[in-house]
């Protein structure tokens, strides 16, 4: 299928897990009614972004995958005939947790999961306290409508992650994310940060010749100290912005992707076939300084 309808769900969250799940399901229904075939939800959509503090009580938000949330979403996926990309807090076993995205096919089948590989530890983003780095490697999933690659938030800064996922045959790269501005910083800093975030992801589209879909949460959290900046977007295989979300509002948007463009752009901008793979061994070093 050359053309695919992709739904982006940008929403705010509350402290009520069931309320957030129910809201996400309504948004998936809205996207499907608009023609979406693949619907991507934002990172950790069943809760507030809890990684702003190190609190053992937050581990109670985690669940098995497959588990209650995927069970509910599988029913919806089958009913609507849509693929659902669902980012969840995974409890793997006692004391072992991951930031994980599950993929549910259009017939309701659970296709598997991707565990976030790159884990941040910044002020207000204390993810290393909660999440074990992913151990499944990079993943692609053959869905009814396209072969999709899933990466999660902090993964978006790493060209190696997008490259490997593209080389595994991904037709589209999806990034569920949760990133925002500290509300005490100036507007110029805000603009610079958002520009860097969008630019690096668009560069993955250009370098790999695949569309990129980035879905971010919106709204004030952390007692007003953080404004999650929304700004979800879809870019085609040349990095052209097809849709740009609001910084302030919830939005459910459906965008048509022409997957045939990847072949066209890769022919005319042959970055993949011009790669000097024989020269890339040093990239596996932490730093190239002789040690």
Automatic annotation (TrEMBL):
Xref: Pfam families: CN_hydrolase
Residues in CN hydrolase domain copies: 4-259
Residue stretches in coiled coil: none
InterPro entries: Aliph_Amidase/BUP, C-N_Hydrolase, C-N_Hydrolase_sf
Keyword annotations: Hydrolase
Any one GO MF annotation of this record: N-carbamoylputrescine amidase activity
Ribosomal protein recorded as keyword: no
GO biological process, one term: putrescine biosynthetic process from arginine
Name of the protein: Carbon-nitrogen hydrolase
Provenance organism: Pedobacter psychroterrae
